[in-house]
Amino acid sequence: MDYNKEIEKLENVRREGQNKVFTMYLNTDPSDPEQQGGEWKIHFKNGLRNFEQYLEESGDKEERKNFQLVKQKVEKFVKGNEQEFLRSVIIIATADEEVWFADRVQMRMKTEFFWQETPELTQLRELTETYPKSGIVLVQQDEIKVIEAYLNEIEDTDSYELDINTNDWRIKKGPRQIQGENNQKDDFKARFNANKQRWYKQIAPKLDKRAKDHGWEKIFVVGEPDPANALTEQLNKPVEKVVQKNMLDHEESKVLEEVFR
Q1: Beta strand pairing status for 218-222 and 241-243?
Q2: Would you give the distance in Å from CA 65 to the centre of its chain?
Q3: In sequence order, which ranges of the chain are alpha helices (DSSP H)?
Q4: Tens-of-pLDDT digits for all 261 residues of the chain?
Q5: What is the rounded CA–CA span in Å between residue 35 and residue 99?
Q6: CA nearest neighbour of 121 among 8, 45, 18
Q7: Which residues pair with 242 in a beta bridge?
Q8: Exposed, middle or buried, 162 (CB in 10 Å: 0-12/13-18/19+)?
Q9: Whole-angstrom distance, CA of residue 94 vs CA of residue 70
Q10: Which of 69, 201, 216, 218 has the greatest count of CB atoms below 10 A from its CB?
Q11: Angstrom distance (rounded) from CA 179 to CA 13
Q12: How far apart are CA 124 and CA 223, in angstroms?
C-alpha cells in the first residue's frame, strides 16, 4: 500500500451531518511495558464505547446508526487480524464504506479515536515522514547488502559480491567467503585501498538505478568509515545518512533500528 497516495485521497474526504469519519490509531505493541497484558483490548473497547455513550446521549439516531455500522466493520477487522498484529493498527472508515483504510504497522503509535467531519491524519503523516520508502546499503569492502524498507518493514534484500579476479560485481549466492591467512588479508587490504574508488564506481550505477526503479525516497549507507564514505562519494543520488558501523552480518531488524533511531 502506498501511504502517500492514500493520504492524498484522505485529505479530500469531508463529511457533513450524521455520516462522519471514524479514525483510530491503536497501540498493540507487545514490547510496550504498558501493553504486557494485552491492555490494547481494553483501550479499544473503551474507545468505541465512549462514542456510543456520547451519541446515545445526543439523541441523534441517524448518527448513532452510522457509528454502529462503522463499529461493526472495525470490530470485524480487529478480530480477524488480531493474530497478525504488529505494533499498531490504523483504521479510517465511513458508514457508507466509501472510505476504508485499515492496516497493521510496525511502529508504536499513540492510541487515539476520532469521530468527526474529516480523517485525523497527523500520525499517519508522521509515519510516512519517519519511515519513507528507503534503500539501506550495507558495505564491507568486497560485499554490499541492500535492504529495502518501507514503514519500518523489510520489503526486499539482495547482496552483491565482488569477483576480485574480474573486478565485477554480481548477485551473491551462498555464504560469504571470509578471507583466510593473514598474508591473504594483508594482500586484499592493499588491493582494496588501491582499487576501492574504481570498485565502488562500478557498483554505484546499479544502486542508483535500483533506487530510481524502486522509488526510494531516502538512501542510507552503513559500514566502517572507509568503505562507507568511498561508496557514498560514487552514488549520484544523495545519501540521507551514513552510519559508520559494520552491520553486514547483523539481523536486518537491528539494522533498521540503528538507521531510524
Answers
A1: parallel
A2: 36
A3: 3-11, 40-58, 61-81, 122-130, 182-213, 225-234, 252-259
A4: 899 999 999 999 999 889 999 999 999 998 888 777 778 999 999 999 999 999 988 888 999 999 999 999 999 999 999 999 999 999 999 999 899 999 999 999 999 999 999 999 999 999 999 999 999 999 998 899 999 999 999 999 999 998 877 878 988 765 555 444 455 566 667 777 777 788 899 999 999 999 999 999 999 999 999 999 999 999 999 999 999 999 999 999 999 999 998
A5: 29
A6: 8
A7: 221
A8: buried
A9: 6
A10: 216
A11: 59
A12: 31
Using alpha carbons, select from 141, 143, 106, 36 the residue that is nearest to residue 253.
106
CA angle in degrees (0–180, nearest 5) for 125-131-135:
140
d(CA 164, CA 173): 16
CA angle, residues 155, 254, 104, in degrees to nearest 5 = 45
Cell of 221: 549507507
For cell 470485524, the residue is: 76
- Residue whose entry in the numeric block shows the C-alpha cell 569477483: 163
86-144: per-residue pLDDT in tens? 999 999 999 998 999 999 999 999 999 999 999 999 999 999 999 999 999 999 988 99
Nearest CA to 144 among 70, 191, 200? Answer: 200
- SS (HEC) of 209-250: HHHHHCCCCEEEEECCHHHHHHHHHHCCCCCCEEECCCCCCC
Bridge partners, 255 (sequence order): none
Length of the chain measured in residues: 261
Angle, CA of 16, 21 and 24, to the nearest 5°: 160
